[in-house]
Amino acid sequence: MYDREFKDAIFEQFARVAAAFSSPKRVEIVDLLSQGERSVESIAEATGMLVANTSRHLQVLRNAGMLTSRREGLHVVYRVADDSVVAGYRGLRTLAESRIGEVRRLAEAFFGQVDDADPVGVDELLARSKTGEVVVVDVRPRLEFEAGHLPGAISIPLDELSQRISELDPDTDVVAYCRGPYCVLAAQAVSQFRAAGLHAERLAAGPPDWHAAGVTLVVGATPDPCPLRHSARKRPTVKGAAT
Q1: Of the listed 30, 147, 178, 185, which one is catalytic?
Q2: Dist CA 219 CA 222 (whole Å)
Q3: With a cut of 50, which residues of the chain have pLDDT below it?
Q4: Does the active-site annotation cover 183?
Q5: Distance of CA 43 to CAs 25, 117, 148, 175, 225, Å?
Q6: Nearest 5 degrees, angle CA 46-CA 52-CA 56?
Q7: Which residues 6+ apart lie within 8 Å of 20 measured at CB?
Q8: What pLDDT sits at residue 223?
Q9: Angstrom distance (rounded) from CA 25 to CA 218
Q10: Domain encompassing residue 127
């Protein structure tokens, strides 16, 4: 093989990965599967696509070596091939954040409208959680919670929040998180918490980012720690909080 033949062949393989990321829906699928494995039907529902279209996108990603699959009864379940896929997605996201100003503008406009909250960093949150200052609420679907969540977090999926919000002590701060910096679930939860009179904040980033930063995530279902602890602390009023 000549030098030029080698160069053309090797960069063609690199371009296969780039092509797999060339569809917004395929990027969203990788973001979703970075939380844990899912069936084709579940992916279709979460991404707002028909099952047939979802299957085609999944085939492209699998052919590029980015996903693996297995059968579970009548369903096909997909997952990311390994951590390098999530690292590649996070690198793509970081590049877009750095070079495309519209990313920041879109995020500021959307989150400013939904909860207008300044995200809390995970190191600050873990320190506050250990001292009992906050209740950490994971608002992702329960299967994602079981695939990996922050130590001490309780699971209240967003679609259960309106029925379970009364379980939380109104005198204890709440910090909600979901899949990552562009996931809308935590912002929607913060809006609901504040409407119910709770002091609520949103956590920055998500489990794949924390895992990459060395934070140990808890796998499996865990008993919810009691969030009904009463506190005599007087909290400052924050922008967007219900009064």
Answers
A1: 178
A2: 8
A3: 226-243
A4: no
A5: 11, 29, 18, 27, 30
A6: 90
A7: 26, 60, 61, 63, 64, 66
A8: 60
A9: 29
A10: 109-212
